[in-house]
């Protein structure tokens, strides 16, 4: 990427020199060249008007050298320029292999709206975080980047928000490869996309278990249903389709939402849905202080990433809430049941951001909460023995031979593979985003912590005594004037 950027530097110079030659100019100082380029273009020089500029010339060369399309070559040149001039420290972590190319390009794109001074600061902060942490999954990495941007350059986060709002779109196009099939795509602000996603999932789930369709098919049917103005999916199980009086899912009392519940659905302030519509649910983690407007710390939208405080406040205003209080949850009397309480499960999930298996990006609030040491073997139901695992990794851990997992005394989750490698499951977690979720470090009864506490207390006491002696000496040598 540095080479691509350097070629671009050269080709820009060549381009300007050629324009100067065309105008019979000898001086090729940078300031003069820019002026000449403008003059050449105004004077209808076909080279200046239609010819490739320095960037285009470089794109062609880089594309040929790497056998990549023009768009990819352009990306390398631009990223190379950012690497050389704006994010040299993060570039160094790429060079050292601490991050890979997709992660570096993600940083380049996500910091694109930051001002140069903020870029300087973010470059150092993010590079330091990359250097000091174990490798992390892509979702955790993006949350880390966005958290730093939201914290240190809130103006950039607001600009990003406006851009994201203005770029919303949905497209429907014929599929190039499959006749008779079309593709639906598009971009939405994350919380709106989450609302659509949650609505489709809720509609797809609110049919009887023996509905013959797959979950994916039911989600598709739900979207088409919405287009037709329906807010619930017709069940296609044998009972519902053979008996016209069964009346679809409404006949099952378990799937009818209580009327009092429907006005407040998690994350959706919309109070107009009919009592029979399945309730869509998505999850937002936000500091209480931000909710109260005392600060603008970023929030986390499960499955999507960092969310700005304004949007989080708006969404949570109409949502059902769980207040997480790590100090209360850790109470020992709560640990002797197998199933964690909702508050404990929420704390475990919020503290991890996603499935805690290394590299996994599956959303935390769709995972199982797993005991490291099984409950049946005496494993307690508390945060130090619980972690979120998606269904796939839960099955791997439970049934595959040779996987081990444990929390260390600091509360970090580790996984050991059948080959004997040890992986940190959670190099960047919810506890890095939300300081109030931070575990209190070593448990109070930890031997090392007790030792350090004793040493500190002793040192503090001796300093105090020395201070007192110095004060006494000074008083003795300087008696008050009376
Ligand atoms: Zn049915
Ligand atoms: Zn997983």
Automatic annotation (TrEMBL):
TM annotation in the entry: none
Biased composition (Basic and acidic residues): 442-456, 464-475
HNH nuclease domain: residues covered: 343-395
Pfam families given in the database record: DUF222 (PF02720)
UniProt-annotated stretches for the region Disordered: 248-278, 439-482
Listed name of the protein: DUF222 domain-containing protein
Organism: Gordonia hankookensis
Classification of source organism: Bacteria, Bacillati, Actinomycetota, Actinomycetes, Mycobacteriales
